[in-house]
Amino acid sequence: MxxxxxxxxxxxxxxxxxxxxxxxxxxxxxDPQPLTLLHFNMxxxxxxxxxxxxxxxxxxxxxxRRPDVISxxxxxxxxxxxxxxxxxxxxxxxxxxxxxxxxxVGTCVRLPDTRHVAGNAILVRGTLTADQGYIFTTGHVLxxxxxxxVSESRSVACVSAVLAAGGRSVKACSTHLAPKDSxxxxxxxxxxxxxxxxxxxxxxxxxxxxFLLLGDLNLLPGNAALNSLYxxxxxxxxxxxxxxxxxxxxGGPVQGGLPSHGEGKxxxxxxxxxxxxxxxxxxxxxxxGNCDSHACSDHRLFRSEVTLNxxx
Length: 312
Prior knowledge:
The chain is α+β, with helices and mostly antiparallel strands. The chain is 17% helix and 31% strand.
């Protein structure tokens, strides 16, 4: 780590949620802080070959929604660097951390630029206090280190920050778990093991303080391995777990939500359930459209909004 300087979720029905937010002006430290989140598996290498049009699409999303936190999967290091430059150029600078997942990804290379790694990135609008990279071993154990071996390919990128919206420090992480392997007796054994590792490593932190965990987990919501993250067993709630609510009533959470990919919902935004609230049906899955002559990604842009509670 490099140092740089409930069931806990209460679902707010539409009127109550809006009434609790201040209309304008600087927020007091004790006030709940609404946050706009964006997660996107941008297929930076596999579909976009390290090129920049996909970054232009993300910039347009930023200009439209002005997110406080952005999580990106499958981003080439050169694309991440370009994104930071473009955010500055539009007058919306963000700070973040890129964690490589592989030692070499040939489709990221765009000569004469020889940068050649891909991974996950987490960006925030605020002040970073620390960053940390994590690597999954080939045995799917999550370790706090920043350099993968040649045989390792999955990582987590994390930052701790005081967001520009105000309030207490938040830890935010972006991850992309192993894909299913149809050649195995249990095709989902690898992402299941890694999902349980997320709960083991980050669960205690999420119980203690505000925590955001976003990413492509390569698992459908009903998979039992995700029970370790969802309530009641896990320390997190997922922002789309109340799909069956109405303005008048809301039952308990369900492990489900809008599809983020052709296979269904495999992208998630988890929040520590003792520290955040969110309105029911607050999630949007948006087709990113085309980047030049091809689809920008095989995943949808995952938009959500949450509120950081200052008194929890």
